[in-house]
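job 3f2a | input accepted
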Amino acid sequence: MARRSAPPASGSSYVPHPSQRRAVGGGDNEDQSAFSRFIQEQILSPEKLPGNLNMLTGLTMFIGGIFAVRTWGELMVPA
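job 3f2a | predicted structure (79 res):
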């Protein structure tokens, strides 16, 4: 069976992750702190934003539920 690989010296055979692409390209902001890079790459990144919003929505509903039960919990118990 014939080997199906890329010809020699054709470059990498994979597409790097967007955060690695920035690092390989030299990076556009070398003066950013580690915290700033974390916020940019993990929180505000367009490919991760939908999942982050889902987690934020779940956390908000959880905290809201605790607040509601602590505030109006006595009204839910039959007297």
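job 3f2a | The chain has a mean pLDDT of 82.
job 3f2a | closed
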